[in-house]
Request: fold
Amino acid sequence: MNILIVDDHKIVIDGLRTLLEGESSIAGIFEALSGEEALEMAASQDIGLVLLDINLPGIDGFEACRRLKSSHPERKVIALTMHSNGGYISRMVKAGVDGYLLKNTGKEELMLAIKKVAAGEQYFSREVANSLIAGMQQPRQPQPAGYIQKLTRREKEVLHLIIEEHTTEEIAEKLFISPATAISHRKSLLRKLDAKNTAGLVKAAFEFGLVS
Reply:
């Protein structure tokens, strides 16, 4: 089985490569530093399993996972991240992830997760499973610091103008950007706030306390 390691820190990729090299069940190890690179690599190589970080430049781990599973449902994806927050875990589960590990895991658990997921099972570390259970037992009151990805200054400006019911052209004019750039920021907001449309953006903005 070929494995693809996706992380925006080369030192993390090198460390994982060192752990995995020599394992008889692994045919080849590939790497990508962004979501876009991961999708390109998965399209050009026979990748059986992906170790995927969530915080990635460009296409984030949520969207990368969704696309990786959408194009090849049989391909296995394990999230390998520092985020133990229930919101992140739930979003990855919705994206189709097969396993979820934290970056403080050891080689033994990493190999166990790879083995189980490759065999068609799911694997969630104990801390991750406990976080999911705790989230199920509490009212859903997501906090912006943990549930959503951090918004850039420009995205916050665009969000406020959307809430004030400005059109794309008006937003572009007020922020001295092109309409295409304004649309790009809007798409990023939809992804980060897990919203389907403008109404969903406004609702999420108030739920997460992003606006007063």
